[in-house]
Every structure is written in C-alpha cells, then in structure tokens.
C-alpha cells in the first residue's frame, strides 16, 4: 500500500529500531542535539513508516520514492529529519543526504548522511555527533552504525560531561554501546583530561547505566611515611544479580604488593560478606613475615522463629590495623570481637546458642573463649505478675593455656510484680541465682568446683509529671520523671571463682538503675543501696525535645566487697556515685551535649564528655568536643578535639579533624581533606598526621616517652570519574578513617 502527497506523504515500509539504554545520572543533561517541534505524522500501525515532506516523487518502475524539503520520516518512536531522502520500497532501504538528524528515544544523532539497509537491519551515519537521551553521554564518530541491540562508533569519542570542552573523554578507534547489557566497550582508547591524553587502554569496558557491571574501578593514590607511595586499582566482578566480588591489588613501596578480596551474596533469607587481605612478605620488617586480615559477616533468617548470625575479624598481628587501616575496625580499637549466634524465638521462649572470642591487641591478658554458651529464657505472666526462668550452660577456655578451662551452669528464677499508670509505675522483683562451676586452672586460688546461691531483691518506682509553660515567648511542655530504686543482694565470697566473661558495666545515668554492677555471672556484686534520680525534658509545640537533663546518684548503706581483679571495684559505706547527662538543642542547627560519671568516694570524675555541634544538614557540620577518662589502662586521659565537614561551594568540600592530648601536650590525630567535584569528575586530596600505635613493641605500664611520640604522616589522592561506574563518596565518610572517627556526641561509650 502506498500513499503520498506533495505536502505530506505517508508510506508504509519497515524501518530499523535502534534502542540504546541511557544511563541514569544526576548531572544536568546538555541541550538536545535533536529538537522535535512538529506533531507526530499519524497513529501509524506498528513498524509502519510515515513520511512528511514539501515535495515527493515516486518512480513506478524502480519503486524509489524521493522526498525533498523538510523531510521527516517516522516509525514508532523513531524520527529522521533531513532535506532529501530516498526510500526503496522493494528493498526497504533509506538514504538521506545533507544535514541529517535522527532520534529514537535512546540516542540522538546529527550527521552528514543516513543509510539504512533493511536486509541487515542496520543504519550508518557518517561524520556524526551523538548523544544518549537520558544521561547526556555524547561524542563524535567518523562512522556511527545503529543496530537493534547496540550502537557502534568508529573513530569516536565518549564523555558524560555536558561542557562544550569536556573535562574528560575516551577517544577510541572503536566504541560499542550495548542496550541489552547496559554497557560500553572501547578498543585502543586514550583517556583524556582537558584534551591531554593521560593513559592508553588497549581495551576498556564501562557501564552505561547505574546497573552493576564487571570492570576496572578507578585507582587511588596515597603516600605515607610508613608505607611509602601507594597505588590501588580495584576490579569489580558482577557475578550474578545477587552476588559480586571485588579484587584490589594494593602496591606499597615500603612493604610490597598486597591483595584484597571482597565477596558479597544475598538472597531472600541470608546476607553474606567475606573479606580477605594478604601481604606475602612485608619488606619493611626485618623478618620475612606474611600479614593478613580476614572478615566474615553472615546473617540468616530461616523463618519467623529461627535466625543466625556470624561476625568476626582476624588479623595476623597486633599492628595490622595501625599499619594498613581497615573498614571493619578503627586504628584506635584495642580488641576484636568475634561471635557466632543462633536464636530461637516463640511467644514464651527465647533460646540462644553462641560462641564468643575476643582478640586483645597488645600484650594484655586475653579473655576466655566462650565455646559455647547455651541460654534459655522462659517467661509467663499477665499485665502485673510475671514469672521467668533464665538458665545458662557455658564452657570457657583460656586462649593461651590449654590447661585453663571451666564449665558453668546457672539457673535463675525471677518473680516480678509491676503496676503501670499514666501518673506512675513501679516494679517489685525478687529472684534467686544458683550457679555451679567446674574449673581447671593453674591459679591455686581457683577451686575445682564451686556452688554459689544468691537471692536478690529490687524495687523501683517512677512518677510522671507534666506541665505547660511559656519561656521566651514560646510555649513548651515540661515533663519530670523522678525515680527511686532499692537493691539488695547479700555478700558471699566469690574469690575462688575464675573471671571468664565478667567486667564492670558503664555507670552512666541508666546504668545506675541496673540490677547488677558487672556483666556476666562470675561476679554478682553484693548490694544494699538506693539510687535516686530524675529526668526532665522540655518539648516545643511540635513535640520536639529541646532540652533534657538527667541526674542520679547511688547511696551505699553497706560496703560492697565483691571485686574483680583489684580493689578498684569495691564500694565503701556512705560513698556515692553520680551520673548526669545534659542535652540542649539550642535551635535547628546548634546543639550542646554533656555527660559525666563521678566517683563520690574518690572525689574524682571517672568519665566525662562535652560536645558543641553545629549541623546545617547531613553534609555540613562542625563539632568541638572534650573528653576525660581516669584509670583507663592505668592512665588518665584528657582530650580536646574538633571535627567537621563543609560544602564551601557546590563544587568544593572541606573536611578535617584535630585531637589534642592535654595531659601529654601533643596532637595525637589530625586530618584535613579537600574535594573538588562537578558533574563530570572529582578529585579528593587529604593529608593526615596520627600517633603511631606500635602494639607489638608496647609493654604494659611502659607508655611511649612523653613528648617524643612516634607519628605517621601521609597524603592520599583519589580521582573519581563520573559516568564510568565510579562512586562519589563525600569527605564526611573520610572522617571515619581517622584514628577516632566522627561520633554523634551523645554517649560516653562511643
């Protein structure tokens, strides 16, 4: 069927489709190469061609239709604009000469001619300028070929920069962009920045969408006084939609070549991440020592009742984190915690099986391994009466001495009676603990078998007050919650029991109202004490908390004689422990937070933290903080610090931190980073100076010579090329890599 008019011809012929998947990208899309201003020709049948032109000539014998003047060819969502075109109705080929524009919704092309061969279902455009419609990726090509699954470019360039002179581009003898695989490939490519060739790539494969794809990621350059010049070049493997891996060679001039591997897997019930780092020989050490790190993180939810979890990190030596850094632990960490856990939940039961291991960094006593701990909690009751039974069976082994191990059985029934009203609530609790130990230890003070029985009594009550008030012309709601707790546990001698999983708990405001002073079960502290405290809050008319102040103290009626390894955990009659917290949101951007733990017997502050923070948004913040801690590893610590990140302009971001040791009068950690970023590329430059924690050479109670600490200095440069699969992390993330890292200023336990 043939229809044509001199003003607008309509011809039904097959035409090629040229779909090209466009990349989703945040950069502003440049001005379109092809601007469609006319209305569609008609509602054409599928795969039919419509032609509009000023003049049309049809040669009956040859079957060639020629169109002249403002020629527009349309098929489905594809449109071709030119001044002259010929269509062979027998072969279905189309030829257009002169300035030609083509748009199919995926790619826009401006060229000097257009040729379609229906037999091969492909089109050719010479001296072409092209642009992917959605992400604005563009370039030039001596010859551009369109097929149903890809765009092939010869003598071509590729960039995602919208600027007339792109900051970066690939110039290659051949580039193919595949719709089906959402990727591009380039052969004999030159990577150019600002028109200057930077390096040659015989072959490169890059994604054209946000979808994951195998290929090289962009490198990172660093330099430090310990490792020398560093170079990282990651390679990403997209194994399956739910599985991937990254292999990163890391060259360090002073140490050698390190390999890093990360594997991730996810399905409907589980998530898994495995990491391994290995340096076969560290050239900076006198001995030919290999160094490594491994990490596993696995979570599984079999059903609504069963779940499991494995998490752990291991290192070859205590100085590994200090020398190489890691995303799984901070350089300031003094231990690595590893555990395996399986939980069963039902309405009344919670059963848990776990194994725990703590790797202490430095020449300190290693904790015992829990191999394993099986615990069960059963609870029944109504709104007031609750009856529960907690039982535990545990086995512990000394990590350094195979002759030192113990088994523990614990049974603890508890009866609770509670009343909850809007104006008040109170809880009465009575319990009984029975524990049996079977111990084998080289310590003569540890008995072979021990039975311990301890009752406990606890009463806790709270009142809830509320009032409306005006302050500074604004309306607020103030709440006040005073509370009191009495705790009684009789004393029994526990010195013949080893210390396997017990340590002193954090004695913050909430900690003063706990029923125990120690974690674990190896020591249950005797208590005859009352805790009194109160919390008040002010809320604005939007129910936002503007201010919160909490203060509590414990009064001891009898000496608490139970202790751990020394007498520091004893408490004398008449002494008092205080804990206070203050949180003040000055306005939407300014906040003040402070917390303190005070020992009334020793008349000194055990821990304190104060922080003032200005937070414009999640990318712009400045924080000033002060911390103290006494008797931490037999040393008192007082430290002042500053940290922040700020977007100076849409392109420039600055971040840094500084921590100063007031006791020893030196800076123990400082970092400054600058990042320039636009929609095409980014560069991140940072420098740091941090104290060198040489734990292998460290001896207990022999700190480094004050005033002569050893420091590690370094710089890092990372290029981020946008549009070739690189990620762009802000400088705020870089603060986490420092010795202390960024912390929200709310908890002393940070």
UniProtKB/TrEMBL annotation:
Residues 290-652 form the LptD C-terminal domain. HAMAP family: LPS_assembly_LptD (MF_01411). It comes from the Bacteria. Component of the lipopolysaccharide transport and assembly complex. Interacts with LptE and LptA. InterPro entries: LipoPS_assembly_LptD, LptD, LptD_C, OstA-like_N. Keywords: Cell outer membrane, Membrane, Signal. This is LPS-assembly protein LptD. The keyword Ribonucleoprotein does not apply. Pfam families: LptD, LptD_N. It is found in: Cell outer membrane. One of its GO terms (cellular component) is transporter complex. Residues 51-181 form the Organic solvent tolerance-like N-terminal domain. GO terms for biological process: Gram-negative-bacterium-type cell outer membrane assembly; lipopolysaccharide transport. Belongs to the LptD family. Residues 1-22 form the signal peptide. Together with LptE, is involved in the assembly of lipopolysaccharide (LPS) at the surface of the outer membrane.
């Amino acid at each position: 069927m043939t229809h044509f008019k001199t003003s607008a011809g309509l011809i039904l012929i097959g035409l090629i489709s040229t779909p090209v998947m466009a990349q989703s990208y945040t950069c502003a899309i440049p001005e379109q190469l092809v601007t469609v201003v006319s209305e569609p020709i008609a509602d054409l049948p599928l795969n039919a061609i419509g032609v509009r032109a000023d003049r049309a000539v049809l040669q009956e014998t040859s079957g060639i239709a020629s169109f002249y003047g403002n020629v527009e060819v349309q098929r489905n969502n594809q449109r071709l604009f030119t001044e002259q075109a010929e269509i062979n109705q027998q072969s279905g080929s189309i030829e257009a000469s002169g300035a030609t524009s083509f748009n199919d919704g995926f790619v826009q092309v401006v060229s000097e001619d257009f040729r379609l061969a229906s037999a091969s279902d492909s089109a050719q455009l010479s001296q072409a300028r092209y642009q992917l419609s959605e992400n604005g990726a563009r370039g030039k090509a001596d010859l551009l070929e369109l097929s149903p699954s890809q765009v092939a470019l010869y003598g071509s360039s590729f960039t995602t920069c919208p600027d007339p002179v792109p900051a970066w581009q690939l110039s290659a003898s051949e580039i193919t962009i595949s719709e089906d695989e959402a990727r591009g490939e380039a052969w004999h490519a030159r990577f150019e920045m600002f028109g200057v060739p930077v390096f040659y790539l015989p072959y490169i494969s890059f994604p054209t969408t946000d979808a994951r794809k195998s290929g090289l990621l962009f490198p990172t350059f660093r330099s430090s006084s310990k490792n020398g010049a560093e170079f990282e070049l990651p390679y990403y493997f997209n194994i399956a939609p739910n599985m991937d891996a990254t292999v990163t060679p890391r060259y360090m001039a002073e140490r050698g070549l390190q390999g890093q591997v990360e594997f991730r897997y996810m399905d409907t019930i589980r998530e898994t991440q495995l990491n391994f780092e290995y340096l076969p020989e560290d050239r900076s050490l006198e001995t030919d020592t290999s160094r490594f790190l491994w990490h596993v993180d696995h979570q599984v939810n079999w059903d609504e009742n069963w779940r499991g979890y494995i998490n752990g990190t291991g290192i070859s030596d205590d100085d590994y984190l200090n020398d190489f850094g890691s995303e799984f632990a901070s350089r300031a960490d003094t231990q690595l915690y590893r555990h395996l856990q399986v939980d069963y939940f039902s309405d009344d039961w919670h059963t848990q099986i776990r194994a725990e291991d703590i790797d202490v960094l430095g020449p300190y006593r290693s904790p015992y391994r829990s191999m394993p701990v099986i615990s069960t909690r059963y609870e029944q009751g109504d709104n007031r009466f609750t009856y529960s039974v907690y039982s535990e069976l545990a086995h512990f082994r000394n990590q350094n001495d195979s002759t030192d191990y113990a088994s523990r059985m614990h049974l603890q029934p508890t009866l609770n009676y509670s009343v909850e009203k809007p104006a008040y609530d109170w809880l009465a609790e009575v319990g009984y603990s029975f524990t049996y130990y079977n111990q084998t230890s080289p310590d003569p003070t540890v008995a072979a078998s021990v039975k311990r029985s301890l009752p406990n009594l606890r009463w806790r009550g709270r009142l809830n007050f509320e009032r409306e008030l005006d302050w500074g012309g604004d309306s607020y709601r103030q709440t006040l919650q005073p509370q009191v707790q009495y705790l009684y546990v009789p004393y029994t001698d526990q010195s013949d029991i080893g210390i396997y999983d017990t340590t002193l708990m954090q004695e913050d405001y909430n900690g003063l109202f706990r029923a125990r002073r120690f974690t674990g079960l190896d020591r249950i502290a005797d208590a005859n004490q009352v805790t009194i405290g109160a919390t008040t809050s002010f809320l604005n008319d939007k129910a936002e908390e503007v201010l919160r102040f909490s203060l509590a103290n414990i009064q001891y009626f009898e000496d608490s004689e139970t202790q751990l390894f020394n007498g520091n955990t004893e408490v004398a009659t008449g002494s008092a422990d205080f804990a206070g917290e203050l949180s003040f949101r000055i306005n939407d951007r300014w906040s003040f937070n402070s917390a303190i733990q005070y020992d009334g017997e020793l008349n000194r502050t055990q821990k304190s933290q104060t922080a003032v923070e200005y937070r414009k948004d999640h990318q712009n913040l400045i924080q000033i903080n002060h911390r103290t801690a006494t008797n931490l590893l037999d040393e008192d610590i007082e430290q002042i610090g500053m940290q922040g990140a700020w977007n100076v302009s849409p392109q420039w971001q600055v971040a840094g931190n500084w921590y100063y040791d007031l006791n020893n009068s030196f800076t123990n950690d400082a970092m400054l980073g600058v990042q320039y970023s636009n929609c095409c590329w980014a560069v991140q430059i940072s420098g740091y100076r941090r104290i060198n924690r040489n734990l292998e050479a460290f001896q207990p109670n022999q700190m480094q010579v004050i005033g002569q600490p050893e420091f590690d200095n370094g710089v890092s440069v990372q290029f981020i090329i946008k549009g070739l699969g690189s990620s762009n992390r802000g400088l705020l993330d870089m603060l986490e890599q420092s010795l202390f890292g960024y912390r929200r200023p709310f908890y002393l336990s940070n």
